[in-house]
Amino acid sequence: MKKILVLGSTGSIGQSTLEIVRAFPDKFQIIGLSANQNTEELERQIKEFDIKSVAVSDDIKANELKDKINGKCEILVGSKGIIELVKRNNYDILVTALVGFAGLLPTIEAIKSNLNGYAPSNGIPSAIDAIKIDAKNKGINNILDVFVTSGASEAIEICLSALLNPGDNFLMPTPGYPLYTAVESKLELEPNPYYLSEENGWQPDIDDIRNKINNRTKAIVLINPNNPTGSVCEKDTLFEIINLALENNLIIFADEIYDKLIFDGKELISIASLNNDVSCITFSGLSKNYVAPGFRIGWGVVSGRYEILNDYIEAINKLLRARVSANHPEQYAISSALLGNQDHLKELINKLQKRRDIMINILSKIDGINLVKPEGAFYAFPSVDVKNDTHFVTELIKETGVVVVPGSGFGQRPNTNHFRIVTLPQEEVLIEAFDLIADFYKKYKSKFE
Ligand SMILES: Cc1ncc(COP(=O)(O)O)c(C=O)c1O
């Protein structure tokens, strides 16, 4: 009799596992279950299979279940609970149909199997295959190379280092994620910011990009969805960027780390999917879509024409070999994350979208604060009518304890002021924080301006 631990028992993979157990009751026995979504179904399963241990996502679900099963089954809580079930090691077969952090359990299995040595420099084969499938699902067809790194951060740094020499420049979205400008300084590159235009929903300003290309410009960075604005690039704008890249032999660095967190029922259009000839490296990872930033797992997908990118790909791989490999056990999570059940995304997007709407509702009532509606990710970048955003933010933190980041940390057009909000906290916390910001803003204006 084989003992099975089923993680994610109310989802489709979990349900089919239970079907098999029903069909072969003398071959298999379920010894533990976990489910995050459907407590009623879980209760039914506990009774049918006489389960002695389960794990659920939170205390509310645990209490709900406790009332119904009358102490007949041990109830563990959260990812700690799931890990406890796995650690007991009293199963023969582990079915992990979970999503989010818990869906990354293959890493625990990898550590237990002592896969703690170095990995291949470009990544383990199952991860590379899964990333290729994910990229193809995004419409990227002409894939030339894929590599796994310690976070997208490492992929970005390696790709910039392999391409640019001191004095060269790349076009940097402004506002944008500051890692790029930090690497720019480290490599002694010339800053070349291009602006996103706030009055046009933070779309890249194509004329500004065109005017800023010079003979030392080697690449253009596109952060889509953008951190800090949450804006998503329109298809027409993507085509215009592709044309500029092709005309000027630029490589596009498409940072799509938030690609699965798009609101209002829309999907991201990957710039690399729109043209087979354009040279592009698309970055993503487990940090945002799979909510596992501490795993430090990211990747790059190179696409375009082999004869143009051949030498550059070799230069990237030289740097990948020099730093030996990305974290090894965590790479086993990549295929289960990308190819496994994606139900958590629906839940995550719903939560983030609701929080965005709450934010818009409260902030839109404040005279002097204006917000372009974010279309993805978990950020917002409202403009604020003050003389100095760093001073405003410092006073806000001191007075209220609400932490936002001044716009100057991300770059912004001269004589404008903004701050960045992260919408990850729970609704009640956000509502309290926005109310505090609204109150504080009035006081700040009368005290300082
Ligand atoms: C646009 C963007 N790119 C890259 C990263 C870094 O991601 P990772 O955790 O994979 O290094 C972040 C993290 O905030 C980000 O916002």
Explained architecture:
- The protein is an alpha/beta fold and 449 residues long.
- It has 3 domains: 2-98, NAD(P)-binding Rossmann-like Domain (Rossmann fold, 3-Layer(aba) Sandwich), CATH 3.40.50; 125-335, Type I PLP-dependent aspartate aminotransferase-like (Major domain) (Aspartate Aminotransferase, domain 2, 3-Layer(aba) Sandwich), CATH 3.40.640; 343-448, Aspartate Aminotransferase, domain 1 (Alpha-Beta Complex).
- The chain has helices at 12-23, 39-49, 59-69, 78-87, 106-112, 125-137, 151-163, 179-186, 206-212, 235-247, 306-322, 332-339, 343-363, 389-400, 427-448; strands at 2-7, 28-35, 53-56, 74-77, 93-96, 143-149, 169-174, 193-197, 203-204, 217-223, 251-255, 280-285, 298-303, 369-370, 379-380, 383-384, 405-406, 419-422.
- The strands form 4 sheets. An 8-stranded mixed sheet has the order 6-13-12-11-10-7-8-9, sandwiched between helices. Strands 4-3-2-1-5 form a 5-stranded parallel sheet, sandwiched between helices. Strands 15-18-17 form a 3-stranded antiparallel sheet.
- Strand 7 (169-174), helix 8 and strand 8 form a beta-alpha-beta unit.
- Helix 2 crosses helix 3 and helix 14 (389-400) packs across helix 15 (427-448).
- The radius of gyration is 24 Å and the shape is globular.
- The chain starts with a strand and ends with a helix.
- Bound molecules: pyridoxal-5'-phosphate.
